[in-house]
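User: Predict DegV family EDD domain-containing protein's structure from this.
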Amino acid sequence: MRYKIAIDSCGELLDEWKNDERFETVPLTLMVGAEQIIDDETFNQKEFLKKVADCPECPKSACPSPERYMKAYDCEAEHIYAVTLSSELSGSYNSALLGRNLLLEDHPEKKIHVFNSCSASVGQTLIAMKIQECEEAGMSFEEVVATVEHYIKGQHTFFVLENLDTLRKNGRLSKVKALVASALKIKPVMGSTDEGNICQLDQARGMNRAMIKMVEQIIEKTPDSEEKVLAISHCNCPARAQVLKEAFQERMKTGRIIVLDTAGVSSMYANDGGVIVAV
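Assistant:
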């Protein structure tokens, strides 16, 4: 096996990766009240959303241990990569680095690189796709690392949420701002900074207008769109994701558009009805 890609469970897997030994999900743990839920192939989105809605406490997540990452790296692949959600949002990146260092103590010959996505969700998916593309093109390990790190610097992630409760409860949005937004039905258009933090880009009254604003932001920030793959993930709203896809097809040229359902961590933050776009 020439390469392996480990993606923490904030990133969504393409269907063709799910039975491919070159791809592995490293699960985070989700906590809803006193219940712990492993974010792996057993995750049930509808059950999870109901538990979150019924629980007065804010859902939380815990990153994988260094030992869990070490286990993912301990394989026969010549080149090993990890893709984690932004180090500004989780300890997953640092845990992945520690796992790498632990394995290298016993196997210093291993070639392992950890990518800080500076993103989340389908942003991570696109990074894994880029790694695969580079590997399939026959690039050396060092060339793959340099090419993908450059790709990450040019990537942008955007999202609009129907429900702001999780962001507010986790301190990503002030209580006053969230309450005013909810009362006036204002939906912020959010994005990622270069460092991987969350920022507000725009806002609109109502979900449909907010999605239009998000499309405009994406078109403005993606001048070379015909060379890009655009990815959409949605939390329990496939029709909304389809509307977005059609809007992009009408208004900008892209190399490819993929649509995925959010995995556990992304579902926790996006909440029911949220949509995320990365390009």
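The mean pLDDT is 93.
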